[in-house]
Design brief:
Layout (H helix, E strand, L loop, with lengths): L1 H13 L9 H10 L16 H21 L1 H4 L9 H9 L4 E2 L5 H20 L4 H19 L5 E2 H27 L4 H10 L1 H8 L21 E13 L11 E11 L8 E8 L3 E10 L4 E22 L4 E21 L2 E22 L1 E16 L16 H6 L2 E16 L2 E14 L10 E2 L5 E2 L8 E15 L5 E16 L2 E17 L1
Parallel strand pairs: 1-2
Antiparallel strand pairs: 3-4, 3-17, 4-6, 5-7, 6-7, 7-8, 8-9, 9-10, 10-11, 11-12, 12-15, 13-14, 15-16, 16-17
């Protein structure tokens, strides 16, 4: 794909403008190409420099090795195999070596951010999605095989670093590339480096960003893509307050970054092309709380993968007429930490490859957009049925006993419906998730004593754990005079339920809020 895009870009730059109008051969060629799918995309692609990407990823891994060796006393707690032929054979050739580890949440979720860095190194050096995924997997496997050769080959680390690296890394890479194509101001270069550090490394080592061929908008941002970057600030209040509510109102902030890497989107024109990844990207961050405690911290990213995009729009009397639709696949990542009554809810979910659709309908002053996706997921979840005062019992899953979470497989679905008429906007966002624990692959499934002399008891109560979550948000916004700011109201609802052995618990949370949103 990269070679095709390079050829088209070079061809476009070398083609001279016609002097006196098209010839008969030109008309014949245009007629033959009229119904062919278009393969253009924002930014001028480069061939994949896999050697440069390999050196950069190797340097990042070297830093990890230095940390691992300087913290060897801490890492000895995870040693389950000796440096003997028999132990290494048992590690690689039997199921004893392929397990879920029992590290803390911070460390295990952090592997997704490392995978994101590996993914960006490959993408910043011209690699496609498939090549970046391969680099993520090979890097993670090399670390598990060689650096941590006295530990189990962690299944969760492999999934989180490779597939989770795509879910998080692709969104950050696309955002970083957008600011790299924008006007070379201090702001844009700083945002490029913040969102995509690998792109900053490429810039500092001689790969200067290429400006957007379509130029820049009034804000100095690349004009070859459509963006909606906004910041909301306001407050929220429980509609069903209880004894744990410390103050009537809590402060709330939301950062929403959306990027559509299709030059024709939200403009009059026709397009029909294969999507190669990153055409629809979104990053969200939400925080709410008061002086006494945090109520919610939420981070999510979503990126389209492969699919097909088609658009046919034209100018109407008061806006666009027509439609624009993407049908294909997507991936996503979410990290959610919320206090619900006496329970602290936490989950980190990696939505793997699944079907997705993003369709916009234009009817003059009206604009209606629906985005939906469905995906299997791998997650680390704090059981909602686990009471924080009693905790897990001895003999349960080792992550549950030591750190209060478990590994799960499941499925998640999300839908977003937005309606806009002139400057008025309203929408509904819905999310459903189901998580089911994984049994039989715990690091301590059987009793043993590690080579360092640490005894480990066997798992005797490897019971099934189930958690479900429903989230819904309703909102409406109206312009604030003739500025880019809008005033809005919202209603947020969340229901959580879970079962652990013979214990079941469910609770819900209903809040309303007001906010001011500024869009760039």
């Amino acid at each position: 794909m990269q070679e095709i895009l390079v050829f088209l870009g070079v061809l476009a730059s070398l083609t001279p403008a016609p002097a006196a109008g098209p010839t008969s051969s030109d008309l014949t060629a245009l007629e033959n190409q009229k119904d062919q799918p278009q393969e253009t995309a924002p930014g001028a692609p480069r061939p994949f420099d896999h050697q440069r990407a390999g050196w950069q990823i190797g340097a990042a891994m070297a830093g990890g090795v230095i940390w691992y060796q300087t913290q060897i006393e801490l890492n000895k707690l995870d040693f389950d195999f000796g440096r003997t032929f028999s132990d290494q054979w048992r590690r690689l050739a039997t199921t004893d070596g392929y397990r879920f580890d029992d590290n803390n949440l911070t460390l295990n979720v952090g592997h997704a951010f490392m995978g994101s860095a590996y993914h960006q190194f490959a993408r910043s050096n011209g690699g496609g999605l498939g090549e970046a995924l391969l680099f993520d997997f090979l890097t993670s496997t090399t670390w598990e095989l060689l650096v941590e050769h006295r530990e189990v080959l962690s299944l969760n680390d492999t999934v989180t670093t490779s597939l989770g690296g795509v879910a998080l890394g692709e969104s950050l890479f696309q955002m970083g590339e957008f600011f790299a194509r924008s006007r070379p101001t201090f702001r844009n270069r700083a945002l490029m480096g913040l969102l995509s550090p690998a792109r900053a490394v490429a810039w500092l080592t001689g790969q200067a960003p290429r400006p957007a061929s379509a130029g820049f908008d009034r804000a100095g941002l690349a004009a070859d893509a459509s963006h909606d970057f906004s910041l909301e600030v306001g407050g929220e209040q429980d509609l069903e307050p209880d004894a744990t509510t410390s103050t009537p109102w809590r402060a709330k902030a939301r950062l929403d970054l959306e990027l559509v890497n299709v030059a024709e989107y939200d403009r009059p024109g026709e397009a029909r092309r294969r999507a190669r990844g990153g055409e629809f990207t979104r990053i969200e961050a939400v925080y709410s709380g008061d002086r006494e405690q945090r109520r919610q911290a939420f981070v999510a990213s979503r990126a389209s993968l492969w699919g097909h995009y088609r658009q046919r729009t034209e100018e109407g009397d008061r806006g666009l007429l027509g439609h624009a639709t993407f049908v294909g696949s997507s991936t996503a990542f979410e990290l959610d930490s919320t206090d619900l009554g006496e329970r602290h809810d936490f989950l980190a979910a990696f939505h793997l490859l699944g079907p997705a659709v993003d369709s916009t309908l234009y009817r003059d002053a009206w604009r209606l957009r629906l985005a939906a996706d469905l995906a299997p997921n791998f997650a680390m979840v704090r059981p909602f049925a686990l009471h924080p005062r009693t905790g897990a019992e001895a003999g349960m899953k080792s992550t549950l006993v030591a750190h209060g979470y478990y590994y799960a497989l499941g499925v998640s679905g999300a839908a977003r419906l937005e309606a806009t008429v002139r400057q008025l906007e309203a929408g509904v966002i819905l999310g459903l998730s189901h998580f089911d624990s994984i049994e039989g692959l715990d690091r301590h499934q059987y009793a043993y004593t590690s080579p360092t002399g640490i005894p480990h008891a066997a798992i005797i109560n490897d019971g099934n754990i189930v958690d479900d979550r429903l989230k819904m948000r309703l909102y409406s916004e109206t312009p604030l005079l003739r500025t880019r700011a809008k005033l809005g109201v919202s209603l947020d609802y969340q229901r959580r339920s879970g079962t652990l052995a013979d214990v079941a618990h469910a609770d819900h949370d209903l809040r309303w809020g007001v906010h001011a949103r500024y869009a760039m």
